[in-house]
Design brief:
- The protein is of the alpha/beta class and 260 residues long.
- A seven-stranded mixed beta sheet has the order 8-5-4-3-2-1-16. A six-stranded mixed beta sheet has the order 9-10-12-13-14-15, with no helix packed on it.
- Helix 2 links the parallel strand 4 and strand 5.
- The relative contact order is 0.17.
Length: 260
Amino acid sequence: MMRCTILVENHALPGLTAEHGLSLLVEQNGEKLLFDTGAGKALAENCKRLNINIMPEYVFLSHGHNDHTGGIGILDDGKTVFAADGIGKKRFSCHPGKPVRDLSMPENRLTFVRISSPAEILPGMFATGPIPRLSGEDCGGPFFLDPEKKMPDTIADEQALLLKEGVLIQGCCHAGIINTLEYCRKSMPEIKIHTIIGGLHLLSADEKRLKRTADYLRNSAVKRLYLLHCTGENAIAYLRAALPDCVIFTPVAGEQIILP
């Protein structure tokens, strides 16, 4: 059985804190893994309200943006933290007409286990490592490695978590879900992905991108989509209409996804 508790999300059940960020507690076969840490404020507050008093020994960071790493301050330096190279780079959001925002992971004293290629990090849990961008999906954005906007940030450190039972867990999916699924299929073909949990970064996707994504998913083996965080309300509505049997419900902080 796989249990995924939504600790931090853009929306939350009454009594819990919502923020633009993501953190999940993944439990499978006796193992517990903290997937991302949210933006900073909500993780500790929500864990307290959910009676989660001890953080898991193992932590997985999907990428270095601070809406996924901002809560690392509550982790002690004895944790085993899985991340890809580049996780600690300075990075910025430079939306036209808006102030430049620092998106960097907070400074910390944690020791990271670097992931560069698909690897089993716990029994039945695999880190994909960085995901090649081959599909032609529009995976860009106003992201830079400097506030002067001279060095684009491809967020090459992004990775996903794949469970052997066929569950793919995403942070933001900056690499694109088609790229991600194709990479998993080629690098770990024995795992047949039937469920996706997480953000798909379709917040600003045009209809052409949404249609391409829906068509690809319709022709894949994916049967369940639990869409979170940066997927975007319009994209969730589009995918729900296009794939009504897949988009079952949209979880919020405090809810659980339980799969056999």
